[in-house]
Amino acid sequence: MTKIHIVNHTHWDREWYFTSMDALVLSDQLFTDALNELKKNEDASFVLDGQLSILDDYVTLYPEKVPLIKQLVANNQLFIGPWYTQSDAGFTSGESVLRNAMIGIYESKKYGEPMRLGYLPDTFGFNAQLPVILNEAGMDNVIMWRGLHLTKHVQSPYFKWSGLGNKNSVYALNLPQGYGTGMLLEPSIEYVDGRLDPAVDFIKQYTKGDILIPSGNDQLAIIHDFSKKLEKINQLGKYDYVISTYQKFLDYIKQTDLEEYSGELREPVLARVHKTIGSVRMDLKKEIFHLEDKLIYRIEPLMVIAKKNGIQLSNHLLMLAWKKLLESQAHDSLAGCVSDTVANDIKHRLKEANEICDSIENTVMKQLSDFLNLSQNEVLVVNASSNHFVGQKKVTVLAATPNVVFEDMDSRIISSQYVESREDVLEETSSGNRFITEPGYYILELEITCELPGVGYRVFSFKESSNFQALATISKNEITGKHITIQYDGQRINIIHGNQKSSDFIQLIDEGNAGDTYDFSPQENSEPISLRFNDCLCLADSNRQQMILSGTVQLPYTLDDRLNYKQGKQFEYQLKLTLSADDEITGEIQFVNKILNHRVRLQLATLDVIDAVKASIPYGFIERKNKSLSNWQATYAEMPVNVEPFEKVISANYKKGSLSLFTNDSREYEYGENKLWVTLLATTDSLGKPNLMYRPGRASGDTTKKGHIMMDTPDAQLLDQNIVFSFFLKVEDKVVDDKTLSWWKDRHNQQDIAYQKQDLNYFVHRIDNKIQSLENNQKQMTKQDKILDFGDNMYHVSSIYNAYYDPDAFVIRLENPTDEEVTLPLDQMFSGYQYERINALEENLESTNTISAYSVLTFKLKAE
């Protein structure tokens, strides 16, 4: 008789159409009930959804229950962790998913050992590199539901899943009918014959041997008298149902022969994955993407520099910012398929996390400047990467004149703002207070060409100058680089590259969105609208040429207006293109959203028909080709549209070249023929709708369940919000490889971190006037210093941060985002440091100097 492993759990959306505070109230009774049941029945066990944050929330209500929780964890009755929250795995960076595990496991230890299971039962599909991330987080397995296509990806729901380089793999346990398969567990003929046995019958089609059945569902309580109910069920059913745990079933699976799969899991066969969910609530998504970068590429390295120079800031302060981000990256929260009230909560958490980050940076830079005793005409510039830097950095300078000149380097002013003089301003002096006239000054943003040491800083001097050279107007409507010309012909933007020309190279496309907060869906009988440009201004200096285009059009305000061809609202938009001497195109699109229920996308035309698109994903690149959508209803739960995620870089390849794009303002693209589309926003009025063109049948979000209601989301319309989308483009006469794309990505991941110690405006940085240099912390510093400089050698650094478990060490993670193995000269790279190989949990691993394709290596460093 087939043995069926039943595991009792709850799936706990921390927020959804209800808020995190609503969930906390629910947990008060349900978690207390679970603890009491586990204490009463030693043979019972309960999985707390694989995320620690909900337990931490509960313990704020019942700190006295910590001893009981520790006992139940030690007894393998209550399973906690390993994640801090239930992360999204399609639009979240690899480093963020790692922090989710790092912080979840670190914080779990106050209760006991967390489960080492990659438990992600409701995530909307998975990137192909999740096995790499899980291995780095000390896990050799994943338990999941959505995205697997049985009989196409694999024949069985239990298999080995490998990352792109095939060196990292996990045991994959799929839940074909979801985490609610055995919910409620009622010992009755109706339940066994109507739900439980048929569920096993379905899974049995795909596998031989034991089967896993989770028993639980959203915000469901623990099952009481579990063993007694199973005894009765075994008298009624045709299978051998046993109390089990995920760990026991995993141990069983490890002893069986398993087929292998490598690739992503994003096919909506047995469950929806919401393939267009990357476009809703783009204001929140964009803020999340930018906060990820701020934490990884700015704040963590700055804290390493700070610590080395005697500036003491708690790692728990950094973790607090991460927690607020991780709460906002839970699968529903990052997706945006939440109520407006929850969206406002997310926005507030992101605000708080940004404030922590900005104030950490402000503190570090101010105190470093104090230690350096900087004058007003000096600027401290930091390189947060371990790669030696030569290139351009942006700095902000306050000066009395409209121009400044840096010594021994090229610089140019990007923007200038004059602040008027003020009368009767109070000045506090040692001899008393007095009132003065505060002079006017300029806030100047400049780009300087400089050289910086790795994970270090350098001080640069400037002098004020009255000379100022603005961009000059070009008489014709075109800009040129080395091999590229961009022309505006009165309506279209065309590009000439060598002897090839593409008309309508860049344009904006507007279309109605009949979808909801889960999915874009086109409006029937409605056509997309091309947004043409009406005016063009071209400017130039010795380093760059710029084209500024603007357009105005009357657009339908509502979906009904589109069907009735009614043009109801004026819509204005601007596109700024800057062409550098080396043919890189910098772009910025800006508009204020005035339209309801619509999608706006950037459309790029390639010089030939696209063969495939290479997209950046965590620690690598994946090549995708469009799939046929004919007769999709026979197989899929929703239309498997060819809308895909990417992590900052996509490259459309065609016969004689490629078009590559970098952006951190969107992570959703689509292509067709010779067109590449990137989503700027998709607005909607509802949490969930039934019977969409892309998603027929029931509404997602429970809004058409019995007793539920349709839920309006007016804030998801992003009405009157200023939308800014920045990007970079490269047009090549060859198909670019992973190595080229990854260095391009690294260059644009570089952060501009600079500070001027000045007394013209203490509120350029929010807490500048309150930061003190502690007398017992004074340190003699030179005007240039480094912590880790790889010199002329360049390596891909995924992150640098102070160790969580060792106060005297910092951690560096190196990645290989290419398809070729890389050997590292570690002694040379880490000269002056003791180093050892670890994983992200700072557990020691076997030493190696080789990074396999599409993989990572992590090291802990201590000064010798």
Tell me the number of structural domains.
4
- Report Rg: 29 Å
Strand residue percentage: 25-35%
The CATH topology of the largest domain corresponds to: Beta-galactosidase, Chain A, domain 5
Task: Provide the spatial order of strands within the biggest beta sheet.
Answer: 19-26-27-28-29-38-35-34-31-32
Largest sheet: 10 strands, antiparallel
The level-1 CATH class of the largest domain: Mainly Beta
Give the CATH architecture of the largest domain.
Distorted Sandwich
State the helix count. 15
The CATH H-level superfamily of the largest domain is Golgi alpha-mannosidase II, domain 4
Poorly predicted runs of 5 or more residues: none
Family: Belongs to the glycosyl hydrolase 38 family.
Domain Glycoside hydrolase family 38 central: 272-350
Protein name: Glycosyl hydrolase
GO biological process, one term: mannose metabolic process
